[in-house]
Design brief:
The chain is an alpha/beta fold and about 170 residues long. It is built from seven helices and five strands. The chain has a five-stranded parallel beta sheet.
Amino acid sequence: MNHKEAEQFSKWLRDEYNLRAVIQERLEDAICEASLIVFTTTTLKPYLADEKLFEHCPTVLHLSLRDICENVILASQNIVDDVDHCLKANTSLHLTEIATGNRDFISGTLVDVMEKKVTLDHNKPRIFSPFGLGVLDLAVGNFILEAAILSNEAIALPDFFSNSTRW
């Protein structure tokens, strides 16, 4: 962790949104105290194997898809955006499927949750693993655009899409 960058980010959250961030030196401490955990790493292999870190039953957005070991996946309620899409490319879910020989550890999809076909289990960690859920990309992009406009850092690019040869 880069402590200086963490402090800058904490200051930005406080100044811009009146939010308080607590900087933890150890990943374990950050996980154990969080009700919402977001993984956005570039790791290629799962490294989080300690189920006790999640025994407080947080909600986990597993955006990077390869942080969590099979035993934690199996001890959690797993929600995906698309089952076939998420269980490939050596994601944590794919490795769990290989280890177990089945997909029984998947509770359902985000659509199932929204349509109330799946009830969230608050007695387990709830892990949402989206593989290619474009709406998240759009939401983050819109957030960045709005922040850039508000800070006068946005740069307009007239006719950016006018060249039809790009299509």
